[in-house]
């Protein structure tokens, strides 16, 4: 069996915990609802699954440290469920590159559409304006 250097392991864990504390210190400085309200919906979803996964992982470690086999505990199913949600959030937040537009095809389409619009516009003769005025005069004279 390989020898474990307990001092270096403890030092590494202490360093990791200090790093985590430094990273989450801004979040701990304000209420969680306030911190979450400043995030976009995508960031909030990521934060929600991160918090759920972190809490359940800590509980899993707590069980393990106290001699309870976590493989037989419901926390394992919860961790698996949260991993599925992490995957769903990743899929939802990763956006593929938008397809590049073919500039020549777009220009041809616009010219064709403009030509069709110009051809479909009815010519408005000046007489139609006069007829409207005469109807209005008839309405005015009958009153």
Folded structure, characterized:
The protein is mainly alpha-helical. It has a domain at about 30-95. The chain has six helices and no strands. Helix 3 (about 40-65) packs antiparallel against helix 4 (about 75-95). The model has no long low-confidence stretch (mean pLDDT about 80).
Low-confidence stretches: none
Span between termini: 112 Å
In which range does the helix fraction lie?
over 70%
> What is the β-strand count?
0
What would the average pLDDT be, to the nearest integer? 81
One letter per element, helices H and strands E, the order comes to HHHHHH
The radius of gyration computed from the alpha-carbon positions, rounded to a whole number of angstroms, is 35 Å
Shape category:
elongated
Please summarize the sheet with the most strands.
none
Overall SS class: mainly alpha
H/I helix tally: 6
